[in-house]
TrEMBL record:
Organism: Streptosporangium lutulentum
Signal peptide extent: none
The keyword Zinc is assigned to this record: no
Cited Gene3D superfamilies: FAD/NAD(P)-binding domain, Fumarate reductase/succinate dehydrogenase flavoprotein-like, C-terminal domain, Succinate dehydrogenase/fumarate reductase flavoprotein, catalytic domain
Domain Fumarate reductase/succinate dehydrogenase flavoprotein-like C-terminal: 489-598
Record protein name field: Succinate dehydrogenase / fumarate reductase flavoprotein subunit
Length: 636
C-alpha cells in the first residue's frame, strides 16, 4: 500500500489557537510549514471558547498590569505554576491581543473605543478581551485569515499559495518518528510524523525535523465533559511515546458549570461569563451557598455578604468580589458538596441564575450563545428562569514538559504549545488564561521550531523500519474482529469519572489503575473490521491507546500526590502541603513502552524579583519555612 509523502521544515499538529499561531510564526520566519488537524480546519476547542482572552491591557481598570496578572495566575495555580511561563504570559498577552486586532479581529469596545475587558474568576480586574460570548470564534477566524493572507503573499512570490504553508485537514497523526543516530544525542531527534486521512483511510507521512504539538486536551477520557470528540489526549500520548515527559497530569480542571440536563447534553459548558456578568449560584433552598465556601487563602479578596458582592459589580474600587468568582476548582468543589449534602437541583446540579440579575435584553446582548444553547438544547429561557448546572471535565493543566522560552520538549525537534503543554497554569487554570496562553506560547513554539531548524547541521532521517511499525500499528484494528472499541471507551470514561474525578481517595484511584491495566489489555484486542473509508470505530480504536496512556498518567500522579491543590483533591489528604508545592510529578514511559512511570522532580525556586511581588502574609500560606526564610533574607 502506497504511503503519501510530504517534506516540510516544521509540521504543526493541531489547528486551534496554539497551532495556528505557531504555524504563522514558523512561516513568517521562512520555514515551509504544514498544519495538520484531525477535524475540519477551524473546528477546534479554541473556536468554542466563549468568555475571552485574559490580557492585562488596563482598558477598563487602569490599575491592571502584567504584575497583577502574574500574581493572579500564580494564586489561581496555587503557586505550582512554572513561574517563567506565567511571567512571559502576563507580559506578552497584551501584545498578542493587539496583534490580533492588527490582523483584523473585532473585539467588543468600551464606551471610549478601547478593547473592552470583562470580569472572570480569579482575575483581580476586568481583564478578558472578548467578542460577546463567542471570543474563540473571532480568534480562530482572525488566525485563519492571517494564514490565508500569508498564502496570498506566497502565491504572488512563488506562484503557489501552498508553497510555504499548507493545511491538511481531517488527517490524524498516530506516531512521531525519530532518527536514533547517536549524533543527535541519547534521545534521538524528531524526523517526522505518520498518520491517516480520516475520510478515506489512506496513510500519510510527513518528513520534518521539527514538530509542534498543539493537539489540545484529554477530556474524552471522562464521561461528563465539555470537550468534543477530538480531545483524546493524542499529543500527550505522542509526546510520551517519543520519549518526552509529561508534568502535572494529576491536575484536571472540572469546570463548575456544565449543563446537567437533558442527559444527551450533560457536560456542555455554561460559560463563566454568566457569573462574571452577575449570575449567582443557589442551592435547592434558594441560598447563595458560595459564601460558605471561601477558603482561608482567599478570605481577604472576596466579599463576605451578598450586599458587598452585589455592590462590587458597579464599584470595584470599594468592594470585594462575590465568591461565585472564586477560582474554578473552589466553585466546582462547593457545588459537588452541596449536591452531596442533598441540596442539589432535581437533575443533580445547582441553580445558576442570571434572570433575576439582569434585564432580558441585556442577557441576550451579553450572552447570546448561552441564551441560544439553553433554549435549543433544554427548552430553558435563561432570561426568565435559572439554569441547572454541575461540574464537567473541562481542561487539563498537565502536559508536555517544555522550556518556557522556546516551548522545546526533552526530545530534540519536538515542541508543544497550548493545552497539550504543561506548567503554565500550575494546579489550576484561570478562565481566559488559555486563549492568551495559546497566542503567547504558540508564537514562541513556532519561533523555537524555526530557530531549531536553522541550527541543524544535517536533517534527521526517517527510518523505514519505524514507518513500517507505524503502519502495522495503524492498520491492526482493521484486521481484527475483536471487541467493540466503544465498549472499552465507555468503561474507561466511567472509571475515570467515578474513581479519578473531582474528589479522589487512595483506594478508588488504585482501583482505577487496576481497571486501566485490564482495559489496556482489552484495547489490544479491539477490532473495527471493515472498510477504511470513514470508519469511526477504527479511529476510536487508535485513539484508545492515547486515552489509556493519559489516564494511566493522571491516575498514577493522583495516587502519588498526597495533598489537595487546585484540580487535585484528595479526600484522604485534604489540605495543601508546602512541601508538595516544591515538587512536580514527571510521567514518562518505560523503554518498552508498556508502562507509565511517575517520579518527583524539584520545582526551581521563583526568581527574586518575581517573589518580591507578593506579600509575606500571602506567601506563608503556600511556601515552606525554608522558602519563607529565604524570602525574609531578600527583604533585608
Ligand atoms: P485546540 O483548540 O483544542 O485544538 C486542537 C487541535 O488539534 C484541533 O485542530 C484538533 O483537530 C487537533 N488534533 C488533536 N489530535 C490530533 C491528531 N492526533 N492529529 C491531528 N490533529 C489533532 N479558554 C479561555 O481562555 N477562555 C474561554 O472563554 C474558554 N472557553 C472554553 C469553552 C469551551 C466549551 C471549551 C471546551 C474550552 C474553553 N476554553 C476557554 C479552553 C480553551 O478553549 C482551550 O484550552 C484551547 O482552545 C485549547 O487550544 P489549543 O490550541 O491548545 O487546542
Amino acid at each position: 500500500m502506497e504511503i503519501e509523502r510530504h517534506e516540510y521544515d516544521v509540521v504543526v499538529i493541531g489547528a486551534g489557537g496554539a497551532g495556528l499561531r505557531a504555524a504563522i510564526e514558523a512561516r513568517q520566519q521562512g520555514k515551509r510549514t504544514a498544519i495538520v488537524c484531525k477535524s475540519l480546519f477551524g473546528k477546534a476547542h479554541t473556536v468554542m471558547a466563549e468568555g475571552g482572552a485574559a490580557a492585562a491591557m488596563g482598558n477598563v481598570n487602569s490599575k491592571d498590569n502584567w504584575m497583577v496578572h502574574f500574581r493572579d495566575t500564580m494564586r489561581g495555580g496555587k503557586f505550582l505554576n512554572n513561574w517563567r511561563m506565567a511571567e512571559l504570559h502576563a507580559k506578552e498577552a497584551p501584545d498578542r491581543v493587539w496583534e490580533l486586532e492588527s490582523w483584523g479581529a473585532l473585539f467588543d469596545r468600551t464606551k471610549d473605543g478601547k478593547i473592552s475587558q470583562r470580569n472572570f474568576g480569579g482575575h483581580e480586574y476586568p481583564r478578558l478581551a472578548h467578542v460577546g460570548d463567542r471570543t474563540g470564534l473571532e480568534l480562530i477566524r482572525t488566525l485563519q485569515q492571517r494564514v490565508v493572507a500569508l498564502q496570498q503573499e506566497d502565491e504572488k512570490l512563488h506562484g503557489d499559495p501552498e508553497a510555504y504553508i499548507k493545511v491538511f485537514q481531517e488527517c490524524t497523526v498516530t506516531r512521531l518518528l525519530k532518527d536514533m543516530n547517536p549524533a543527535h544525542g541519547p534521545n534521538g531527534a524528531i524526523s517526522g510524523a505518520f498518520g491517516y486521512w480520516r475520510e478515506n483511510g489512506k496513510l500519510i507521512l510527513f518528513d520534518a525535523p521539527a514538530i509542534v504539538l498543539a493537539t489540545g486536551g484529554i477530556g474524552k477520557s471522562y464521561v461528563v465533559t465539555s470537550n468534543s470528540w477530538e480531545y483524546t489526549g493524542d499529543g500527550h500520548a505522542l509526546a510520551l511515546l517519543a520519549g518526552a515527559n509529561l508534568i502535572n497530569m494529576e491536575f484536571i480542571q472540572f469546570h463548575p458549570t456544565g449543563m446537567v440536563w437533558p442527559p444527551s447534553v450533560r457536560g456542555i459548558l455554561v460559560t463563566e461569563s454568566v457569573r462574571g456578568d452577575g449570575g449567582v449560584l443557589r442551592n435547592s433552598e434558594g441560598k447563595r451557598f458560595m459564601f460558605d465556601y471561601i477558603p482561608e487563602v482567599f478570605k481577604a479578596q472576596y466579599a463576605t455578604t451578598e450586599e458587598e458582592g452585589d455592590r462590587w459589580y458597579t464599584d470595584q474600587a470599594n468592594n470585594r468580589r462575590p465568591p461565585e468568582l472564586l477560582p474554578r476548582d473552589e466553585v466546582a468543589r462547593a457545588i459537588n458538596s452541596e449536591v452531596k449534602a442533598g441540596r442539589g437541583s432535581p437533575q443533580g446540579g445547582v441553580y445558576l441564575d442570571v434572570s433575576t440579575r439582569l434585564p432580558s435584553a441585556e442577557i441576550i446582548r451579553r450572552l447570546p450563545s448561552m441564551h441560544h444553547q439553553f433554549k435549543e438544547l433544554a427548552d430553558v429561557d435563561i432570561t426568565k428562569e435559572a439554569m441547572q448546572v454541575g461540574p464537567t471535565c473541562h481542561y487539563v493543566m498537565g502536559g508536555v514538559e517544555v522550556d518556557a522560552d522556546t516551548a522545546a520538549a526533552a526530545v530534540p525537534g519536538l515542541f508543544a504549545a497550548g493545552e497539550v503543554s504543561g506548567g503554565m497554569h500550575g494546579s489550576n487554570r484561570l478562565g481566559g488564561n488559555s486563549l492568551s496562553d495559546l497566542l503567547v506560547f504558540g508564537r514562541r513554539a513556532g519561533a523555537g521550531a524555526a530557530s531549531y531548524v536553522n541550527g541543524l547541521e544535517g536533517r534527521p532521517k526517517v527510518s523505514e523500519e519505524a514507518v513500517s511499525d507505524a503502519k502495522a500499528e495503524a492498520l491492526a484494528p482493521l484486521q481484527r474482529a475483536g471487541e467493540n472499541p466503544y465498549e472499552v471507551h465507555h468503561e474507561l470514561q466511567r472509571t475515570m469519572n467515578e474513581l479519578v474525578g473531582i474528589i479522589r481517595k487512595e483506594e478508588e484511584v488504585s482501583e482505577a489503575l487496576e481497571s486501566v491495566e485490564k482495559l489496556k489489555e482489552r484495547a489490544q484486542g479491539v477490532g473495527a473490521a471493515g472498510s477504511r473509508i470513514y470508519n469511526p470505530g477504527w479511529h476510536l480504536a487508535l485513539d484508545l491507546r492515547n486515552m489509556l496512556l493519559v489516564s494511566e498518567c493522571v491516575a498514577k500522579a493522583a495516587l502519588l500526590r498526597q495533598e489537595s491543590r487546585g484540580g487535585h483533591t484528595r479526600d484522604d489528604f485534604p489540605g495543601m502541603s508546602p512541601e508538595w508545592r516544591t515538587k512536580i510529578l514527571l510521567c514518562a514511559l518505560t523503554p518498552d513502552g508498556s508502562e507509565v512511570t511517575v517520579e518527583e522532580k524539584v520545582q526551581p525556586p521563583m526568581r527574586d524579583d518575581l517573589i518580591k511581588l507578593f506579600d509575606r502574609d500571602e506567601l506563608k500560606k503556600y511556601i515552606t519555612e525554608k522558602e519563607l526564610a529565604a524570602f525574609d533574607a531578600l527583604a533585608k
